[in-house]
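Entry 14. Ran structure prediction on the chain below.
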Amino acid sequence: MDTMKKIKEIISQQTGIDEEAISESTTLEDIMADSLDTIEMLMAIEDSFDIDIPDEDAKTLQSVGGLCAYIDDKLMS
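Output, structure tokens:
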């Protein structure tokens, strides 16, 4: 499974931003996600990958690349 591809799909669906415009260095600020958008994206990501992202961890995730690394780490443990 390509974590980055899946995350880009989810972000694109949630925000309407073209997947091509999303990279590892893209931040939530870059996609202008407010707190509700961020919560909805994280819920969709949790459902898609069948994981739980605690609020404390979610607050530390700044970029799409960081989110991918976090998810990959969760899936391996």
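The first helix runs from residue 3 to 15. Will compare against last week's run tomorrow.
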